[in-house]
Amino acid sequence: MQKRTFVTGLAGVITLALGGVAPAFAADYPSQPITIIVPSKAGGSTDTTARIFAETAEAKYPGFEFVIDNIGGSGGQKGFETIARAKPDGYTIGMDFTPQLVAHIVSKRGKYTLDSFHVMGNVAEDPGIVAVPKDSKIKTMADLAAAAKGGDLTVAVNGIGSDDFLAAKTFEKEAGVTFNLLPTNGSTEQKAAILGGHVDASFMNLSQMIAQHKAGDAHIIAILTDKRAASAEDIPTAKEEGFNVTMTATRGFVAPAGIDPAIQSKLDDMLAAVMADPEFQKKCAASKIDLLPMSGPDYTRYLENLETSVKAVYDAAPW
């Protein structure tokens, strides 16, 4: 699949009014396709969410056309930085995912802050899981802890500072073990490593491995939530197995700060309308995407609180 792909849409014109009068630049908006930057490779759950949004938005809003631009690398950092420095003209928005967005801030690796973005809102959540190859002798979290006692267990995570990484480090502390952590460039690589039996386990997300689990091609030994997932009631929580490890990723939309309020308001309203659309919800359900709608202000507060909590983890054990 090519890195840059077009999502075609319907033609038309939308006029954006500000104070009852539409400035020329707003009246002509959009006059070109809007780029959605996805900070990961094509084919992952973040990419799928962006594409379902684009398809639904184009159908609901004649005149809008979206381009998906996959910019993976460094646990989303490259993509986040590209969004932050994009021209604030309404023609570039992007997906974010947590905790990577804030982890790069607290580690001082990211060349941005939360103030670099206008937070449009959250779309979905994706509970953390622990997966193993289908023929693995590791069947429970206790088995994982026992197998790791020797110190030579290879465990894949989606980059340093990712939700997978933080969950794995939390488990290490809980179980008193140390993994040979293998940072990857995304869930596509993690999935291939598990399906090919190239790693002993992987901390990842439910949407990324639930289909393979149900097909018997891999085995999810635990979900990292307070209670079992409705879509996977056969999978016990880590807490049930005696390990206080929880982790959930969020996936939302942000834009570079400074977009004209008339244009930004339309984009925000579009996101809210798409998330409420039954067809969007149906497609997300079919793709095993668990929706967790949050408004821009609510998601901003969530990100600010998350930054504080991730900073506490980083200060205790920098990565």
From TrEMBL:
The keyword Chloroplast does not apply. It comes from the Bacteria. It holds the Pfam family TctC. It comes from Thioclava indica. Belongs to the UPF0065 (bug) family. InterPro entries: BUG, Bug_dom1. This is Tripartite tricarboxylate transporter substrate binding protein. Keywords: Signal. Residues 1-26 form the signal peptide.
